[in-house]
Write a structure and sequence with these properties.
By secondary structure, the chain is mostly helical. It is built from eleven helices and no strands. The chain has two domains: about 190 residues, no CATH class; about 160 residues.
């Protein structure tokens, strides 16, 4: 009874903080969706400079627009794909990238200003302040990685490096993980009667979470290499379970990262492996309700991925597939946080309170 009373009191005091963290998580997911739309609409290289402060305002005059267009005309992308495009066409892609960067700045403000307020008013503990400050550092690093990614498409190649694209997405995932973990920590109510779950379940769930992270990275590789434009059949690839052209690059290990067929094959294989492991986890923990959220998420994510592949990457479905990868990750992290709060296993101390 005392434990429940203490939890309710703590939750009441932390409710504004929890709402803020939830909003930040939603904005990070929203940013991932905008980033996907920017990439799929071929707008990401339209702004050729990074001005964190002065870049907040778009071009305000005809002369400003002309200068921006002249800068874009020096890029490999313009020369290879958009040569001779009109000012109206340029403005369309420019404004897409502008909104992407503007929302990124707004997301930063939504995090930083309340963070300062809650810290000064001592609404969050020192331990939480440290965790969220780490999230802030990763957020700043993610912004730098975004420009680092864009620069790779402004030099010699008319597209960004898929490695840098993966780094950009991975840093966003780390920020999302840190924020959502703290949100879950506030929201999950500890029960008086602890669940009896074997330590294998914790390791099993942790393995699935690690595989989801790996899958998101390979999803970025698929996107950056346009690997979704080949083998648009499922479950077979060109009528085969294992296509012939998986290892034509040398050295052999390079195929894992740069061969479009191999990258797509690994992405498919990881999806099926994660599904199988989550089904097993659900069967073994049928009484633990959060595992069903995880199972539902992975099924929806695979369906979205298959539809994206079969329909040759329709923008709306492709963006939904990218967004849902974060929701799947969040559901897996929630399951682990739930186990940490509810289980009697000492392994759960791996996730400190």
């Amino acid at each position: 009874m005392e434990q429940n009373s203490a939890w309710f009191m703590e939750q009441k005091q932390s409710k504004p903080v929890a709402i803020w963290l939830f909003l930040c998580c939603i904005m990070v997911i929203f940013m991932v969706g905008i980033g996907g739309f920017t990439r799929l609409s071929k707008a990401g290289l339209s702004i050729t400079e990074w001005k964190p402060i002065t870049g907040t305002l778009p071009p305000l005059s005809g002369q400003d627009w002309l200068q921006e267009k002249l800068k874009y005309e020096t890029t490999p992308e313009y020369k290879a794909f958009n040569y001779g495009m009109s000012m109206e066409e340029f403005q369309a892609i420019y404004l897409i990238e502008y909104v992407h960067r503007l929302v990124a700045r707004l997301t930063g403000l939504v995090f930083v200003l309340p963070f300062i307020y809650f810290t000064l008013r001592r609404k969050i503990s020192k331990k939480v302040v440290i965790r969220l400050f780490v999230a802030l550092l990763f957020g700043a690093l993610q912004a730098f990685a975004g420009w680092y990614m864009v620069k790779s498409g402004l030099a010699t190649e008319p597209h960004v490096s898929h490695y840098r694209l993966a780094l950009h997405l991975l840093l966003a995932l780390i920020v999302f993980a840190l924020l959502s973990y703290q949100f879950f920590d506030y929201q999950i109510r500890p029960k008086q009667t602890k669940l009896k779950i074997s330590s294998d379940t914790i390791y099993y769930a942790g393995t699935i979470l690690a595989l989801i992270v790996m899958q998101i990275i390979f999803g970025a590789f698929v996107a950056g290499l346009n690997a979704g434009l080949i083998y648009n059949t499922f479950p077979l690839m060109d009528g085969q379970i294992i296509p012939k052209d998986l290892f034509f690059l040398h050295p052999i290990w390079l195929n894992i990262f740069e061969n479009r067929a191999t990258v797509q094959f690994i992405h498919r294989a990881l999806a099926l492996l994660i599904l199988a492991l989550v089904v097993i986890l659900t069967v073994k923990n049928a009484s633990v309700k959060p595992v069903y959220i995880m199972l539902f998420s992975v099924i929806i994510q695979i369906i979205l991925g298959v539809i994206t592949l079969l329909l040759h990457i329709p923008i709306a479905i492709a963006i939904a597939h990218q967004l849902f990868s974060f929701i799947l990750f969040g559901s897996s992290l929630y399951f682990l946080c739930y186990l940490r709060k509810q289980t009697t296993s000492p392994i759960c101390t791996f996730f400190p309170s």
